[in-house]
Amino acid sequence: MTRTPALGVMLPRDLDHAQVLTFARRADDAGFDELWVVEDLGFRGGIAQAAAVLAATTRVRVGIGILPAAVRNVAFAAMEVATLAQLFPGRVDVGIGHGMPDWVRSVGAWPARPLTLLEEYVTTLRALLRGETVTSPDGSPLGLRDVALDPSSVPDVVPDLLAGVRGPRSLAAAGRVADGTVLAEPVTPEYARAALAQVAPTGPHRVVGYEVAAVDDDGAAALDTARPALAWIGEPDWDVHIAPLPFADDFRALRASCATREEFAARLPAEWVARLALAGTPDDVRARVAVLAEAGVTSVVLLPAGPDPLAALESLARLC
Fold this sequence. Notes:
The chain has 320 residues and is an alpha/beta fold. The protein contains 14 helices and nine strands. The chain has a single domain (6-220, 281-319), classed as TIM Barrel, CATH 3.20.20.30. It has an eight-stranded parallel beta barrel with strand order 1-2-3-4-5-6-7-9, surrounded by nine helices. The relative contact order is 0.14.
């Protein structure tokens, strides 16, 4: 039997700082199960946002999506995550990934072996959070020697560690070492199934899907609201999301024929927008969430579309 997925919402990375805690409290009050914060280069730090949001709310589960493994020493990451887990037990999830290659290279941190680093990072972080003493194997990119958290800092509840990745080898690594996988938008049922086949988990495994979202009693208006937020999806890094779709070739051809992202978004057929975003009436979107659950998504995280994030949040809250 398919379980009802958790319903989450993304705190927009560029939200005005004066609205951050207001957004978090309203998401908490509205009944969302999860609230995810973003760590993208040049915006706000993921751990700092998570701490502030956790302190400002009472029940919502807070996910960090994602921490690039190459830019944060794993022992110090363990200290930060353990602090959150002790202060807010059972309310913290941590996404870990490679990070966007161009961003990580721009700060001089792209590793020689990104896949090895990711696997060792997740495994080591979990061991440290469990109170174990860790010495890295010879040749490890982590280089730890007899490192452990002080017993007073070891949390009673170890957060779920999820891999925020794309690509077959990285997805397979997520299945080996992570408690779940974070799939960036757009997560169609086709992409979710394809990704899960590559993850191939051998036990319980969460799948968090980010989705551009808009809700309106006028379904066409909701599609129009979501459309601009899809403008960048034609970029090459996102082709794995498009490849499983029946209109993939037509999609690529349309993107190639457009001079700008804005032109591409404007020319997207409404039926493609409906497949690439969770947009429509409340009943439309609930039906799409159910289909995602059948495809294996366990948490659906809505990215508010539209010019006013707080108004968008209020509309999305109709789904709770």
